Amino acid sequence: MQGQTFYMFNRLDEARKLLEEAETVLSTVFGMMHVHLHHFHYGMVLAGLYDQAAPAERKAPPGSNSIQHPVYGQMGRHSPDNFLHLKLLLEAEWYRITDKRALAEEKIRSSDPLCG
Known about the structure:
The protein has 116 residues and is mostly helical. It has helices at residues 2-8, 12-23, 33-48, 55-58, 70-78, 80-97, 101-111.
């Protein structure tokens, strides 16, 4: 929760450090909502720090500790009412920071049924 707070107050470096530390113990709390929120906020923090990242970090492959974390693909399919919007928002953020605005807007619209 502290990582989320740092993210909300745009203290992204502190959020990243804390979320990276938390990553080491996530396997001990599997299945809890906190795990999914951790991955969401970690992805958003990485997106916020994208411009400052080294080129190698910017091209992190899907499935690594990147914005495109596999947990949302799995949970989006398993429980779309709870998690699909988070997956779509992370994808939208990825498309936004990689200058694919049309795809970003599509993901944002599809993340909220009221926007359609």
